[in-house]
Amino acid sequence: MPARFEELDFQQTTLGEISLRRRYDLTAQVDLYEVRLGEEFLMSSLFTTAERALASLALDRLDRDDLRVLVGGLGLGYTAHTALADPRVADLTVMDAAEPVLDWHRRGLLPEVAGLATDPRCRLVLRDFFAHVAGEPGASYDAILLDVDHTPRHVLHPSHADFYTVAGLQAMRAHLTVDGVFALWSDDPPDEEFTAVLAAVFASTAAEVVSFANPLTGGESSNTIYLATAG
């Protein structure tokens, strides 16, 4: 029987205490990797379908090669790992505000996404994504993929809230190529108010519900991927 629980890392960050845990789940009968911020549960390796779809749905909207992609929020790495699986991606920048998260990948603590930190196309950058896209555009990206907050309404830090406004999204859009794609993960069903905000900034928008089996409940769960194309 594998060890039931192991804390792989525990460190203090500007957002609070962050920890990476490995836990053997008797129901799913697999080793799970979980991230907590203080007492708040952030993510689990048991549920990665929507995190992977965040990359695949966005990149499917682009019909060219040599793609430059920006990922906001590294987490357990499934979005970045899926982006790198697309051979058209030539350059992937992943920004995270927590050095411990970057360190987990550099140390190879997450076997399912092994090789992410050493892929020559990938750069792991310690930086606040929201501060980066609020500033003057430098590099432009064909796709910007964001998975930091729980939802546009349930943010991890109050400073993130301005991003989900028309002004915040307009500043981010300036970092996209003319027909670039923005994609956002959310834990809630589609939000009509936020969809209207997206539509005020982008030429076309959609909210895709991604469903997946939940072995813990024996039922089905879902997340939302918002997609918006500049133009």
Structural features:
four-stranded antiparallel β-sheet, globular, 21% helix, alpha/beta, Rossmann fold, seven-stranded mixed β-sheet, 231 residues, 6 helices
Write the layout of secondary structure elements.
Layout: E1 5-13, E2 16-25, E3 30-37, E4 40-44, H1 49-59, E5 67-72, H2 78-84, E6 89-96, H3 99-106, E7 122-126, H4 129-134, E8 141-146, H5 166-173, E9 176-186, H6 192-199, E10 204-214, E11 219-229
Parallel strand pairs: 5-6, 5-8, 6-7, 8-9
Antiparallel strand pairs: 1-2, 2-3, 3-4, 9-11, 10-11
Helix pairs in contact: 1-2
Q: Give the strand content.
A: 35-45%
Shape: globular
Under CATH, the homologous superfamily reads Vaccinia Virus protein VP39
Largest sheet: 7 strands, mixed
CATH topology: Rossmann fold
Note the total helix count: 6
The strand line-up of the biggest sheet is 7-6-5-8-9-11-10
CATH-level-2 architecture: 3-Layer(aba) Sandwich
Q: How helix-rich are the residues, as a percent range?
A: 10-25%
Q: How many domain regions?
A: 1
Instruction: Assign the CATH class.
Output: Alpha Beta
**Number of strand segments:** 11
The SSE order reads EEEEHEHEHEHEHEHEE
First and last CA, distance: 55 Å
Structural class label: alpha/beta
Please, what is the average pLDDT?
Answer: 93
Radius of gyration: 17 Å
Structure description:
The protein has one domain: Rossmann fold, CATH 3.40.50.150. It is globular and about 50 Å long. The protein has 6 helices and 11 strands. By secondary structure, the protein is an alpha/beta fold. The termini are far apart. Helix content is 21%, strand content 39%. Helix 1 runs parallel beside helix 2.
